[in-house]
Design brief:
Blueprint: H1 2-10, H2 18-40, H3 67-81, H4 86-107, H5 114-136, E1 140-141, E2 149-150, H6 153-173, H7 180-200, H8 203-208, H9 217-238, H10 247-264, H11 271-274, H12 276-295, H13 307-315, H14 319-344
Antiparallel strand pairs: 1-2
Main location: membrane
EC number: 2.7.8.13
Protein name: Phospho-N-acetylmuramoyl-pentapeptide-transferase
Length: 345
């Protein structure tokens, strides 16, 4: 918004190009985060250690809650470089709300209860769903079928809320290995940024591929690339052995970000394709616990979740091995499935 005002004063057409906005937003988020993550890390709360995780004690005492820094920088990036858009601005505020809630948990002397966090996640997910329905102008399209669209408001609200809640919690559960959650989220949001800018935000390409054109897709891609840049800066310090941790402030805010951007594409099913490894790593454990706790159904008895803990304990994978192999799996899935979805459709 501020950028649009300044570029209007300068009156140079080049400053109106979305590609220029993406570049400036990207480098702003990367450079500012690179500086402040190092400068402010000493003021962050200290990690309590993850008692139920394999090698969870290794994180004890490290600065955590870094998400409050890099997602705040992202907020300023959106305010500076993105044109005003109700659904984008409100969604960014909800990312910040999820971040702040997570940060309060990070700085608490004892970890907050599961139901307390689940309830807040549900509230912010419902708020995100309402924002997209009221201001997002989003129609759900189904993979592999060119004419199947879902426009019923109640069904949309339920689907949106479910995707956002699942995304927040699976991302949170995957944050237990240096670099893992950051690199998987980076890949997911980076893929979405490319989709929004080059395909869904391009009227000619979207028409050719028989997908709905998103008029503000390029504007959303600026925000998505800003998150990618923020994660690059974070991973600079979180690469094994990590110096800082994103904490719940980062994982909950990023989980909401993945969900809301996926929903903006109009295809919530993309979550299971673009964030497959995040879902399997963290989400399958949630399903396992829910079935056992509420229905007394036992599944995956011999598999420990999050899956990265199973790989550590049973296969002696190092943090670097886990990160690289999970990354390769997600790259292979994303590359193949996205081509299949758009071409078959």
């Amino acid at each position: 918004m501020l950028y649009d005002w300044l570029s209007g004063i300068l009156n140079y057409p080049i400053f109106q190009y979305f590609s220029v906005k993406i570049m400036l937003s990207f480098y702003f988020s990367f450079i500012v985060n690179l500086f402040f993550l190092k400068k402010l890390s000493s003021r962050l709360p200290r990690d309590r250690g993850k008692l139920l995780s394999v090698d969870g004690a290794l994180s004890k005492g490290k600065p955590t809650g870094a998400g409050v820094i890099f997602l705040t920088v992202h907020l300023f990036s959106v305010l500076i470089f993105n044109s005003f858009d109700w659904d984008l601005y409100l969604s960014t505020m909800l990312i910040s709300a999820a971040m702040i809630f997570g940060f309060f948990d990070d700085r608490s002397a004892s970890e907050w209860g599961e139901y307390r966090k689940a309830a807040f996640d549900l509230l912010v997910s419902m708020a995100g769903a309402a924002v997209l329905i009221l201001w997002g102008d989003v129609t759900i399209w189904v993979p592999f079928f060119k004419n199947v669209l879902i426009e019923h408001t109640i069904i949309q609200f339920i689907i949106y809320t479910l995707v956002l809640w699942v995304s927040i919690n699976t991302t949170n559960c995957s944050d237990g290995v240096d670099g893992l959650s950051g690199i998987l989220v980076l890949l997911s949001i980076g893929s979405l940024a490319i989709l929004l800018y080059f395909i869904l935000g391009n009227i000619k390409i979207s028409e050719y591929l028989l997908v709905p054109f998103i008029a503000d897709g390029a504007n959303w891609s600026i925000a998505a690339f800003s998150i990618v840049a923020s994660l690059f800066a974070y991973l600079w310090y979180n690469a094994y052995p990590s110096a800082i941790l994103m904490g719940d402030a980062g994982s909950r805010g990023l989980g909401f970000a993945i969900g809301i951007i996926i929903l903006k594409t109009g295809n919530p099913f993309l979550y299971f394709l673009i964030s497959t490894v995040l879902f399997i790593n963290g989400g399958t454990g949630l399903i396992k616990i829910a079935l056992k706790r509420f229905l007394n159904i036992h599944i995956f008895k011999n598999i420990r979740f999050p899956l990265h803990d199973h790989m550590k304990e049973n296969y002696n994978w190092s943090p670097t091995q886990i990160m690289i192999k999970f990354l390769i799996l997600q790259l292979v899935i994303t590359f193949g499935v996205l081509i299949l979805i758009f071409k078959v459709r």
